[in-house]
């Protein structure tokens, strides 16, 4: 351990944010920049009969108006993942046009863009665009989308399925085991649709430079290089070396800013067309209508137990809504990021999951914090607790009976699941016990009993989750349908003075990379953190990268940087040996200098750096310079795990749930900065609690969204949450150099079922065994009455 | 319409469209982009500034309504390059992640502490109710304001 790894180093990025000096995309103004506004469909499904822009074109300040009939209407954005049907039929991949031409397929789909000198002029003129629609019937529920007479989202296919898919053991074998089970627990529910709601709305500025024939796109994205790849190679067909993507400060992502959105490509095209920069910033209403949503699974599941409470089989059928088009990662979310977690932390011998993924007349659904894994965890952690309740067992007892025994992935092999993956290392019982101790579980049960006698409804809910992140080994995801590799790139450039610039393809939008990455770089090089700068978010500066999602920045992005540091030290040793007139093998590197073992003869990192750039007295045949770039492709996913426990009180008169305590013991492998890990857990837990208690995107039958603003979409506010009581166990990841697993999504994955389990526990004596999320007061009150 | 508004101690006079909101005026006319726009229904609080000493959501106020007012934005909190104790406390307690809601949080924290120099956790959470943060779960924001209260009371 050095001076920085493992310490709660305060963040270097904070000063600019705290002073209001961050550079979010909407803060940028370019010379001659124009503003834009979209004309969007007020219907979920309609034919476009005509678009009249005559009046709009005459409005003050209008520079240009484009519709789907213009050349931009021929371009579309691609999907980045292919999941074919079980019968071999290719995934149905509709064109996702930049502007709808003949038909609109979800509420808010863009039909025209109005570009003007000012934002007000663009918005005024957009209101003058007259679109004549013929409204058509719509379907918004994934289950109903697969009914025989459901309105078709895309006419070119006979039904609404985009693909179907299954994983695990043979279905008949699983069904047979369920037949023979001592007890079968059934769950039917909808894992509701959520709006990610990063606080910074999406914002883009496209700037085409006529003289240089180059495009610059400033964009609020989580993965600038991926956007460049998709924009150039798939959306617009422009050469990649002519495009620069800049993504400076980004105000939260949570998945919603991974995807290549139509507006990014359209603005890029339009900027060339008008020869001026074009800006568009979403307002919150547009964000609800156009940012990719999360979840939306309709689930039917059966878990069979033997008489001792051991799980014997688990069978699940799901309908997972894709929305109207396939967003960048959408097909991966309910499949490879979901079904592969159905083992959970249990030794379940037989598992089968079948997924049908229909199109619906809604905005596309894609990864939202956790992406498929919260949905898997919700099911597993609810159904095992429900099973315990039905069998009269304690939720702790049933988990202890079913846990996979501890394994470190070094002495003991990784755990091979029934659903393709091999877990890296885990000790699930240890995290559970630590969480129970932290909560004071036995005492709580006594308190609960007493409270019940007084007519108060207290409940405790447990979730012992696992997730797969550190996404991902390219060969594995390639075999699973990914159309890109998922390695990461890290470049370490030692400057002649010994200062270090690090260029990472990972992207920070709140995670604190500028601090955490500098911590381990400084330690590994034995230098001061102040001498390390972390650069990200500009494709002209950073050689390549795949960006940030799936809790991958440290485990994949960090490992790429470590690889480059190893190369720096290896070359540095050659230079040091030459300077010290010693053999390389006789040198050791510590505290920023190479020392001849057993002597006081040494040369500093700074000296070696200078020599590398002023190679007057230099090893023969060695290249000058000290600058290395590495690609790191992980050997496996990483598997963080832990136990979350919620304590709630339900108001018996109103059904209102008060979250009183939340204990989170997370094992994210080695911890670089505990302050930042805790912060990630706090935020993730808040989002998971949001799903459990408050959040839901609701479309009505006709496809209108009735939760399209903060007046209607309830997100956790400060007084909805208690302090989150965090702690960790540490089971290092055996397959990456830092031993880290990732902490970005764990909070959101583990927390939701803990809260719902707690509410059901509070009402168990009233015969309640399940409640549909979100647990709004009226929903809970109704459950109590039944 | 002509408006004269004092922002962070400096007085400006501009001829503006009457429909321009205060936040647009701050961001577009004065280039004070530290105040952010996170929604369009006064629900998120990212645009919170101080107007004549009261926390105001600047997306809900027209710039013309601020005529003759003293406005303080996040850019006016640090003095001589030194962070305000509230800003320093947010850094110390990791009260921010992506930073987008942060200016509004700092401004509303100032308002909470003006009204409750020794706030309880409940008073802090109540005071933060109008401001969304999607990153921190509010945990460290509450801690930051508690620390700021201590510092300011020293």
From TrEMBL, chain A:
Keywords for this protein: Molybdenum, Oxidoreductase
Signal peptide coordinates: none
Domain Aldehyde oxidase/xanthine dehydrogenase a/b hammerhead, residue spans: 19-137
Keyword Nucleotide-binding attached: no
PANTHER family linked to this entry: ALDEHYDE OXIDASE 1-RELATED, XANTHINE DEHYDROGENASE
Record carries keyword rRNA-binding: no
Protein's recorded name: Carbon-monoxide dehydrogenase large subunit
SUPFAM superfamilies registered for this protein in UniProt: CO dehydrogenase molybdoprotein N-domain-like, Molybdenum cofactor-binding domain
GO-annotated molecular function: iron ion binding; oxidoreductase activity
Highest taxon listed in the record's lineage: Bacteria
One Pfam family per UniProt: Ald_Xan_dh_C
Gene3D superfamilies referenced in this protein's UniProt entry, alphabetically: Aldehyde oxidase/xanthine dehydrogenase, a/b hammerhead, Aldehyde oxidase/xanthine dehydrogenase, molybdopterin binding domain
Automatic annotation (TrEMBL), chain B:
Keywords from the named record: 2Fe-2S, Iron, Iron-sulfur, Metal-binding, Oxidoreductase
MF terms in GO: 2 iron, 2 sulfur cluster binding; metal ion binding; oxidoreductase activity
Top-level taxon of origin: Bacteria
CDD domains per UniProt: fer2
Record-annotated 2Fe-2S ferredoxin-type domain positions: 1-77
SUPFAM superfamilies found in the cross-reference section: 2Fe-2S ferredoxin-like (SSF54292), CO dehydrogenase ISP C-domain like (SSF47741)
Protein name in the entry: Carbon-monoxide dehydrogenase small subunit
């Amino acid at each position: 351990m050095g001076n920085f790894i493992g310490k709660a180093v305060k963040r270097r990025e904070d000063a600019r944010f705290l002073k209001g000096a961050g550079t979010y995309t909407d803060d940028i103004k370019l010379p001659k920049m124009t503003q834009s506004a979209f004309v969007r469909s007020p219907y979920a499904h309609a034919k476009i009969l005509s678009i009249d822009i005559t009046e709009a074109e005459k409005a003050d300040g209008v520079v240009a108006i484009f519709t789907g009939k213009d050349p931009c209407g021929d371009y579309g954005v691609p999907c980045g993942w292919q999941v074919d049907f079980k019968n071999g039929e290719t995934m149905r991949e509709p064109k996702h046009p930049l502007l709808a031409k003949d038909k609109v397929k979800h509420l808010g789909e863009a039909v025209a863009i109005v570009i003007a000198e000012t934002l007000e002029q663009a918005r005024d003129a957009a209101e003058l665009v007259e679109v004549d629609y013929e409204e058509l019937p719509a379907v918004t529920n994934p289950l109903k989308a697969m009914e025989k007479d459901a309105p078709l989202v895309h006419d070119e296919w006979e039904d609404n399925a985009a693909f179907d898919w299954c994983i695990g053991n043979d279905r008949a074998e699983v069904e047979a085991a369920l037949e023979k089970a001592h007890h079968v627990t059934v769950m039917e529910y909808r894992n509701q649709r959520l709006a990610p709601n990063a606080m910074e709305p999406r914002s883009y500025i496209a700037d085409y430079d006529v003289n240089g024939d180059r495009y610059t796109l400033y964009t609020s994205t989580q993965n600038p290089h991926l956007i460049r790849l998709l924009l150039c190679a798939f959306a617009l067909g422009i050469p990649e070396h002519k495009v620069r993507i800049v993504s400076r400060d980004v105000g939260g992502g949570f998945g919603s800013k991974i995807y290549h959105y139509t507006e990014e490509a359209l603005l890029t095209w339009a900027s060339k067309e008008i020869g001026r920069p074009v800006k568009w910033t979403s307002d919150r209403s547009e964000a609800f209508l156009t940012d990719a949503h999360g979840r939306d699974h309709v689930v039917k599941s059966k878990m069979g137990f033997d008489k001792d409470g051991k799980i014997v089989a688990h069978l699940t059928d799901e309908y997972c809504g894709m929305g109207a088009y396939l967003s960048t990662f959408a097909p991966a979310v309910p499949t490879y990021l979901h079904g592969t977690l159905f083992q959970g932390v249990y030794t379940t011998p037989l598992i089968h999951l079948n997924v049908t993924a229909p199109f619906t007349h809604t905005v596309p659904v894609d990864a939202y914090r956790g992406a498929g894994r919260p949905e898997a965890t919700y099911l597993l952690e609810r159904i095992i607790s429900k099973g315990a309740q039905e069998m009269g067992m304690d939720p702790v007892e049933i988990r202890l009976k079913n846990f996979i025994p501890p394994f470190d992935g070094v002495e003991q092999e990784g755990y091979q699941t029934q659903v393709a993956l091999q877990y890296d290392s885990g000790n699930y019982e240890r995290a559970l016990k630590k969480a129970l101790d932290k909560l004071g579980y036995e005492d709580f049960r006594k308190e609960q009993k007493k409270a019940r006698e007084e007519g108060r409804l207290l409940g405790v809910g447990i979730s012992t989750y696992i997730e797969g992140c550190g996404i991902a080994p390219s060969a594995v995801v390639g075999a699973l349908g990914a159309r890109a590799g998922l390695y990461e790139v890290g470049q370490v450039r030692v400057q002649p003075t010994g200062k270090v610039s690090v260029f990472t393809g990972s992207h920070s939008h709140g995670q604190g990379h500028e601090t955490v990455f500098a911590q381990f770089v400084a330690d590994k090089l034995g230098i001061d953190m102040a001498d390390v700068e972390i650069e990200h978010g500009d494709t002209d500066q950073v050689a390549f990268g795949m960006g940030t999602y799936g809790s991958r920045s440290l485990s994949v992005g960090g490992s790429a940087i470590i690889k480059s540091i190893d190369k720096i030290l290896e070359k540095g040793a050659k230079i040091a040996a030459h300077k010290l007139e010693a053999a390389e093998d006789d040198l050791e590197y510590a505290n920023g200098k190479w020392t001849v073992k057993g002597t006081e003869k040494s040369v500093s990192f700074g000296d070696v750096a200078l020599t590398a750039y002023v190679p007057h007295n230099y090893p023969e045949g060695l290249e000058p310079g000290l600058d290395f770039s590495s690609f790191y492709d992980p050997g496996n996913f990483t598997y963080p795990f832990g136990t979350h426990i919620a304590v709630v009180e339900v108001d018996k008169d109103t059904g209102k749930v008060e979250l009183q305590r939340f204990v989170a013991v997370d094992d994210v492998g080695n911890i670089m900065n505990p302050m930042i890990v805790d912060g990630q857990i706090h935020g993730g837990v808040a989002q998971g609690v949001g799903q459990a208690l408050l959040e839901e995107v609701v479309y009505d039958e006709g496809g209108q969204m009735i939760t399209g603003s903060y007046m209607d979409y309830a997100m956790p506010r400060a007084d909805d949450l208690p302090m989150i009581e965090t702690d960790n166990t540490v089971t290092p990841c055996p397959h990456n150099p830092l031993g880290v697993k990732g902490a970005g999504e764990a909070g959101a994955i583990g927390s939701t079922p803990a809260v719902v389990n707690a509410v059901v526990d509070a009402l168990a004596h009233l015969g309640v065994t399940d409640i549909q999320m979100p647990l709004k007061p009226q929903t809970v009150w109704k459950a109590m009455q039944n | 319409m002509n408006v004269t508004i004092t922002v962070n101690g400096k007085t400006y006079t501009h001829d503006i469209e009457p429909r321009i909101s205060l936040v647009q005026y701050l961001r577009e006319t004065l280039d004070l982009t530290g105040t952010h726009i996170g929604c369009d229904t006064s629900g998120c609080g990212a645009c919170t500034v101080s107007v004549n000493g009261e926390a105001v959501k600047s997306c809900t106020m027209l710039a013309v309504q601020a005529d003759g007012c003293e406005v303080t934005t996040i850019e006016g909190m640090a003095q001589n390059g030194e962070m305000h104790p509230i800003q320093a406390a947010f850094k110390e307690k990791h009260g921010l992640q992506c930073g987008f809601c942060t200016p509004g949080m700092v401004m509303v924290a100032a308002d909470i502490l003006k009204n409750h120099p020794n706030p309880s956790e409940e008073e802090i959470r109540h005071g933060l109710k109008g401001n969304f943060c999607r990153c921190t779960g509010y945990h460290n924001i509450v801690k930051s304001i508690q620390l700021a209260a201590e510092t300011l009371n020293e």
